[in-house]
Amino acid sequence: MKSYYDLLETTGTATQNELKQAYFACLRVSHPDKGASDLDHFNLLQKAYEVLRDPSKRKEYDAWLKEQLIRADDVFGIVDEFDWDSTCQTGDHLLESLPSCRCCGDSYLIESEDLDLIIDFAYFDCASCSVKLKILKV
Question: What is the pTM of this model?
């Protein structure tokens, strides 16, 4: 699972100054004015830096990331998968189109804010049982 830290080629222990340096180093390579053609990657870099440079947003993101890593380590049971085309489905519309848990029929514990943090994939728990939903961003 990729994180905002991975995108900026730094670590979770990076200082604000180190984050800024990493961000600008990535921009030098990825900025459209420098000939880079992947606008989605450029936008992700901006989003990552926007979150990580703000201490309160970074704290929330770090907690979310820690939770995701725990969920990923805990995946030994049933996992449902959902391919998410983020260019077609966003926010509440995506939440409405998610499948119900195949084990108990309940919904998964997902907030629309969680969707903004997914880079490649993330896990979410069922509200009633141990099944997890893996959302793959395609």
Answer: 0.74
